[in-house]
């Protein structure tokens, strides 16, 4: 018997890929997948539990769905993902209306969980080892047809003192190169033009499985796949940006000149307290080498402000670094103390208002940097992939190689000829609006 299933997936792209694999299993079993929750037999909530804001969003979604259940609009609720893995007892105790709480290792058994919740009034729990999480298998894409995430590993063997990922997902597990290539070929066959390569630490790919860094080899093989036009790298650890990787990005036309380096800080004392490998000088050298070898490279980064012990001097080092390096893309987050991590118990915790103020300073500085960089782009023409059409303004929204979907800026442009979603167009830039570029197809 088939059921009507709705799935809400929250959090990062890695979690989204996990959800897509569950959807494929559900579809193959003959259940009906819908993109709404009203009237569903089962609603699966794939949660994030990385920082407080993500936990809050997950709990709000669970409670909203519970309300629908109490009104008779939804029959059963399954909670999975990182929050379920990390706080199973609390969810079961505090939200008794939930019918199943399962860990990420149970995702591959989602069909059994669905059958069980539909046949019992008791709480269903399943927490096999995190390593049981399927890394291969079919997916039903939840991204637009022209781009997709390609997850090459799960878990993380780094031990950053603020991060819960190793305790939630276990040590890093790399997928076999041949399995990744097979999946990428399948994605190309269904119309995907851009692959966004992800893992908790993409640059460590292969170290656990092959005993050496294999990202350059994997990228070279991905570039051989017909139909793939852009390959983009996210979540790259700075100390593993090797000369071989830089050369691969530089020489392979399909790999866009864009790299995401989550640096987290620039003060050596804070970096050490975070258990980040390398120093501020090492980071400067890596960025210098990238910009020398690939002059038009776009570097995206994220920083954490307000880490325990971040005094005025440490923050000044960070602010100076941001203004000196002039990143192309930058995100800034307030430190969120996570129970069970070393940073949670560290001395010299900062007040929330101090963290927020420091984050505002960094982002104001970055806005000024972006305005200067965008001003320099006026008059240039960029290959742009079409993401949306706005019928009200008869204009398009797209992305250049400089922009990752869902996190970076966009290009708003007009075109005399009709374009389809997923088309590429050469857009000439004539102005900008803060972070976004304005242009036209001639």
Summary keywords:
alpha/beta; 23% strand
Question: Could you characterize what this model shows?
Answer:
With 442 residues, the protein is α/β, with parallel strands linked by helices. It is 35% helix and 23% strand. The protein has 14 helices and 19 strands. The protein has helices at residues 13-28, 52-70, 82-86, 88-94, 110-119, 165-169, 177-189, 207-210, 215-222, 243-251, 268-273, 280-293, 312-325, 352-377, and strands spanning 4-9, 32-34, 42-47, 76-81, 100-102, 124-126, 147-151, 153-154, 173-174, 194-198, 230-233, 255-260, 298-305, 329-334, 381-390, 395-399, 411-415, 424-433, 436-441. A six-stranded parallel beta sheet has the order 2-1-3-4-5-6, with helices on both faces. 43% of the residues are buried.
In short:
By secondary structure, this protein is an alpha/beta fold. 35% of the residues lie in helices and 23% in strands. The protein is built from 14 helices and 19 strands.
Tell me the helix content. 25-40%
Number of H- or I-type helical stretches: 14
The main sheet comes to:
6 strands, parallel
Structural class: alpha/beta
Strand order of the largest sheet: 2-1-3-4-5-6
Topology:
Elements: E1 4-9, H1 13-28, E2 32-34, E3 42-47, H2 52-70, E4 76-81, H3 82-86, H4 88-94, E5 100-102, H5 110-119, E6 124-126, E7 147-151, E8 153-154, H6 165-169, E9 173-174, H7 177-189, E10 194-198, H8 207-210, H9 215-222, E11 230-233, H10 243-251, E12 255-260, H11 268-273, H12 280-293, E13 298-305, H13 312-325, E14 329-334, H14 352-377, E15 381-390, E16 395-399, E17 411-415, E18 424-433, E19 436-441
Parallel strand pairs: 1-2, 1-3, 3-4, 4-5, 5-6, 7-10, 10-11, 11-12, 12-13, 13-14, 17-19
Antiparallel strand pairs: 8-9, 15-16, 15-18, 16-17, 18-19
Helix pairs in contact: 9-10, 13-14
């Amino acid at each position: 018997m088939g059921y009507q299933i709705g799935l809400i997936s929250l959090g990062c792209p890695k979690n989204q890929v996990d959800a897509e694999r569950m959807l494929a299993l559900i579809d193959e079993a003959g259940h009906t997948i819908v993109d709404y929750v009203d009237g569903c037999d089962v609603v699966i909530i794939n949660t994030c539990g990385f920082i407080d804001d993500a936990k809050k969003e997950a709990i709000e979604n669970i409670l909203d769905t519970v309300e629908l259940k109490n009104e008779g609009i939804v029959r059963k609720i399954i909670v999975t993902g990182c929050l379920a893995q990390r706080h199973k007892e609390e969810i079961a105790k505090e939200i008794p209306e939930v019918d199943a709480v399962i860990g990420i290792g149970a995702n591959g058994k989602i069909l059994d969980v669905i059958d069980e919740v539909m046949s019992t009034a008791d709480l269903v729990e399943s927490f096999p080892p995190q390593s049981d999480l399927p890394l291969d298998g079919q997916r039903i894409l939840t991204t637009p047809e022209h781009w997709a995430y390609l997850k090459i590993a799960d878990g993380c063997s780094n031990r950053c003192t603020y991060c819960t990922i190793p305790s939630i997902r276990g040590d890093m597990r790399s997928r076999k190169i041949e399995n990744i290539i097979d999946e990428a070929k399948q994605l190309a066959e269904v119309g995907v033009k851009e692959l966004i390569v992800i893992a908790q630490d993409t640059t460590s790919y292969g170290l656990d499985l092959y005993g050496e860094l294999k990202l350059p080899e994997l990228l070279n093989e991905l570039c051989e796949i017909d139909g793939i036009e852009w390959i983009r790298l996210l979540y790259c650890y700075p100390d593993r940006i090797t000369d071989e990787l830089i050369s691969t990005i530089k020489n392979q036309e399909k790999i866009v000149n864009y790299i995401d380096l989550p640096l987290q800080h620039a003060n050596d004392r804070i970096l050490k307290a975070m258990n980040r490998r390398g120093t501020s000088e090492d980071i400067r050298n890596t960025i210098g080498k990238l910009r020398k070898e690939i002059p038009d490279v776009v570097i995206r980064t994220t920083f954490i402000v307000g880490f325990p012990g971040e005094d005025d001097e440490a923050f000044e080092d960070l602010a100076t670094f941001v203004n000196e390096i002039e990143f192309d893309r930058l995100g800034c987050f307030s430190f969120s103390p996570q129970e069970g991590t070393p940073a949670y118990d560290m001395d010299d915790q900062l007040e929330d208002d101090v963290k927020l103020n420091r984050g505002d300073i960094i982002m104001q500085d970055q806005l000024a940097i972006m305005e200067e960089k965008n001003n320099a782009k006026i008059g240039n023409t960029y290959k742009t992939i079409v993401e949306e059409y706005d019928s009200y303004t008869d204009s398009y929204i797209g992305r250049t190689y400089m922009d990752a979907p869902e996190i970076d800026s966009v290009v708003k442009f007009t075109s005399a000829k009709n374009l389809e979603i997923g088309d590429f167009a050469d857009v000439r830039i004539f102005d900008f609006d803060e972070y976004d570029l304005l242009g036209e197809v001639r």
